[in-house]
Design brief:
This protein is an alpha+beta fold. It folds into two domains: 12-308, Glycoside hydrolase, family 65, N-terminal domain (Beta-galactosidase, Chain A, domain 5, Distorted Sandwich), CATH 2.70.98; 375-635, Glycosyltransferase, CATH 1.50.10.10. The chain is 32% helix and 24% strand. Strands 1, 9, 10, 11, 12, 14, 15, 16, 17 and 20 form a ten-stranded antiparallel sheet that branches. Beta-D-glucopyranose (BGC) is lined by residues 346, 354, 359-361, 489, 491, 603-604, 638, 640, 684.
Length: 769
């Protein structure tokens, strides 16, 4: 954990002082994205010390052939890698003949990075003294346009401070890039052609195997004291995968020179291969016609619109405020819901690990955020993404020996195929199937849009119910159904029998599918006919499902009066985390895997994840018992853990704990709790941070088609507020220690419940209670 690194600020992420040790962490934290592409905060100029280069394009991946485990039947053939895409930001710089490199400067002063979340740009400034004695002031601003999502903009300014200088700007685009992590050290990009004229250049490259074609482009202009010099490059250099221009300018002491670079990608996901360059030219022309200032203003306006709906304010606690805004900002940089082919990768556009692939994180954590802060179509798109991959999930289950249309959704996927490469997760972490069914339930509960179920959702529910029915085993000794050989959400334990969360979810999935079948049969008969004949479902099969659900075994300890995480959990040496020496944490970096597996330590909410999903199936006293039993063994080494615990602690009025977990989830990356932020940020858990305010402190639940709140406020805060798009009306909720205020933007009255009491909120009328 590193708490003194990022300077607290309500709207910006700020780092002051240059420290080469922190470069990789800052590259993650200051990442920018616009839903279609994103990149780590790599320097534009050459940097010869430790750095992790990353620029990513949504939906562009490479199936990296599996290295281990392929000899096991059913093993995925590849691990999908989000690709480090061609570099369009590069600008080499020479000052009086010396290559500028922060790693070899005589001195760096006043170094500052700022990620302005309100306006959506990243800025870096410093004074550098080169070995040749020239002192320069550098200011660089970069943003990825939300309005034109194929466009990135850089303004790189250099002012010589102590003497006149010849500055040579050498902007380039380069498809000769690699991933940090590649199973076989292969190249993932095949250059196809390069093309340049005047100030513009294009490199077209194609991914091997997946054959995504990408045109990377740049267009440059050189300025002196903010006036464009109209220069053409005095030199250009092209190889098969790179084009570099060179512009020399004589700059007098105190004059500000600059290069303005427009760049980015056009990709075959959105254009014909033959039209990539002309599409890039159109983006350049649009950018040039608007100009830098107008593009920046457009960016500020576009972010203002996002914040208008999704901002959460916290009064009296800057670190908490900065944390939640960072999380909301990163989520919106990663996924904006415009394209139903895309999803939300656990690291978004900030790193390679987990890449841009889809995990259960989307259904379990992200959907509530997108549902409440955007139009409901966005959440529907996320559900449709899985519907569109149903056939692949059925094929995946068939590979593992299931039949009759049973579906096992992948743990990790880019295109519907399983591409996770650890057997205990790939084959065993089957609970992900349940989250996908739960999201359908949750979507309907929140939006009231039932149409999704007869149109698409029911087919998914049936296929998932079929899987659970076939995956359960009848135990004659127990006279109950058991589920053997699984990994629960707690990945610090593999191949366990009867993981409570998995068994409970399996039972619920079947019950819910049966319930929806009955509802669709009575209310949507033509959809029912269509679906039943498509999936060929008979009453006899339904009866078997019901038997499994009705007799599902749930491990329980009479002694502790709690459901057991899995069979045999109590045989472990139950030493609480609190009694572990601090030097042993995080255990995933200090202990052997074997030791972790035998320990009682829980990576993330497991039984408690079940209590989170199905809170209303249990009493508060039961929740408390389970929370008190399991939390002390939980190491929270998954980013997905603190948010669930924060919500539950708040529900149980354990406000100090709730606040501590809140800080941990919201500042996980900013304060680097898990000592790994240099690999990238934890994007999907950021939606959990949002939940920990809205559902945790705000106590928001949807019951019987109405919003309920039980607001609480941490002592550290004087107030907080958030907005909810509930069924196309926007409700603003503002909480202080003494009152809760509701305001509604909408056309009709909304009845909400505050601590169980009904309150009618009329449009455009503030209510304080
Ligand atoms: C967690 C999983 C999660 C994955 C991606 C892992 O560390 O244990 O539950 O799906 O990260 O966020």
């Amino acid at each position: 954990m590193n708490q003194d690194y990022i300077i607290p600020n309500n709207w910006s992420i700020i780092e002051e002082g240059f420290d080469a040790e922190r470069v990789k962490s800052s590259e993650s934290l200051f990442s920018i994205g616009n839903g279609a592409m994103g990149q780590r905060a790599n320097f534009e100029e050459n940097y010869t010390a430790e750095t992790f280069q990353g620029s990513y394009i949504a939906g562009i991946y490479y199936p990296d052939k599996t290295k281990v485990g392929w000899w096991k039947n059913g093993y995925p053939e590849y691990f999908a890698k989000v690709l480090n895409a061609p570099n369009w930001i590069g600008i080499e710089i020479e000052i009086n003949g010396e290559h500028f490199d922060m790693n070899s400067c005589a001195e760096i002063k006043n170094f500052k990075r700022e990620l302005n979340m309100k306006e959506g740009w990243y800025h870096r400034s410093f004074i550098a003294k080169l070995q040749n004695g020239v002192e320069i002031q550098v200011e660089v601003r970069r943003f990825l346009s939300l309005e034109a999502d194929e466009l990135g903009v850089i303004k790189y300014e250099i002012t010589p401070l102590n003497q006149d200088a010849k500055i040579v700007y050498k902007p380039y685009i380069d498809a000769g890039v690699k991933n940090e992590d590649a199973n076989w050290e292969e190249k993932f990009w095949e250059p196809l052609n390069v093309n340049h004229a005047e100030n513009e250049a294009f490199v077209v490259a194609r991914t091997f195997k997946t054959h995504f074609n990408v045109a990377t482009y740049m267009s440059n202009s050189i300025l002196l004291n903010d006036t464009c010099l109209g220069l053409s490059p005095n030199n250009s250099n092209a190889t098969e995968d790179k084009v570099q221009f060179s512009y020399g300018v004589e700059v007098a002491k105190g004059q500000k020179s600059a290069i303005q670079k427009f760049g980015g990608y056009t990709v075959s996901l959105n254009h014909e291969n033959s039209a990539l360059i002309s599409a890039a030219k159109s983006v350049i022309n649009l950018a040039k016609s608007k100009g830098y200032e107008a593009l920046l203003q457009e960016q500020i306006d576009a972010w203002a619109k996002i914040w208008e709906m999704s901002d959460i304010t916290i009064d009296g606690d800057v670190k908490a405020q900065q944390g939640i805004r960072f999380n909301i900002f990163q989520l919106n940089q990663t996924y904006l819901g415009k394209d139903s082919r895309l999803n939300i990768g656990p690291k978004g556009f900030t790193g390679e690990k987990y890449g841009g692939s889809t995990y259960w994180d989307t259904e379990a954590y992200c959907i509530p955020f997108y549902m409440a802060t955007k139009d409901q179509q966005v959440a529907r798109n996320l559900l449709t993404y899985r519907y569109n991959q149903l056939d692949k999930a059925i094929e995946n289950a068939a590979k593992l020996g299931f039949n009759n249309g049973a579906a096992l959704y992948p743990m990790v996927t880019m295109n519907g195929e399983e591409c996770h490469n650890e057997w205990e997760i790939t084959f065993e972490e089957i609970h992900r199937n349940g989250a996908i069914a739960f999201a359908i339930f949750n979507y309907y509960r929140f939006t009231g849009d039932y149409s999704y179920i007869p149109e698409k959702g029911l087919e998914v529910l049936i296929a998932i119910a079929r899987f659970w029915h076939q995956r359960a085993t009848y135990s004659t000794s127990k006279n109950q159904f058991v589920i053997l050989g699984v990994t629960g959400p707690n990945e610090y334990e593999n191949n366990v029998n009867n993981n409570f969360y998995t068994n409970y979810l399996a039972k619920w999935c079947i019950d819910y599918a049966v319930e929806q079948l009955e509802k669709v049969a009575t209310e949507y008969d033509s959809d029912y006919e269509r679906i039943i004949s498509k999936v060929n479902l008979h009453q006899a099969e339904l009866e078997q499902w019901k038997k499994v659900a009705g007799k599902m075994y749930l491990p329980f300890s009479e002694e502790h009066d709690v459901f057991l995480q899995q069979d045999g959990f109590l045989d472990k040496e139950l030493v609480k985390v609190h009694d572990l020496d601090k030097s042993q944490r995080p255990i995933n970096q200090k202990w052997s895997w074997d030791r972790i597996l035998r320990s009682p330590y829980i990576k993330q909410a497991d039984v408690l994840q079940g209590f989170y999903f199905f809170e209303d199936h249990f009493s508060k006293a039961q929740l408390e018992k389970h929370f008190d039993f399991y939390e002390p063994f939980t190491v929270h080494e998954s980013s997905l853990s603190p948010c669930v615990h924060s919500i539950q602690a708040a529900t149980l009025d354990k406000m100090d704990m709730a606040y501590t977990f809140y800080l941990r989830t919201s500042r996980l990356d900013l304060d680097d709790y898990n000592k790994e932020v240099e690999e990238g940020c934890h994007i999907t858990s950021m939606a959990g941070t949002w939940m920990s305010i809205v559902e945790g402190f705000g106590g928001m639940r949807v019951k019987n088609d109405a919003l309920h709140f039980e607001p609480r406020i941490p002592n550290e805060w004087t107030g907080y507020s958030f907005k909810i798009n509930f069924r196309n009306q926007i409700l603003q909720v503002a909480v202080t220690a003494s009152e809760t205020k509701f305001a509604l933007e909408g056309s009709k009255e909304l009845t909400v419940y505050l601590n169980g009491n009904a309150i009618v909120v009329a449009p455009n009328n503030l209510i304080s209670v």
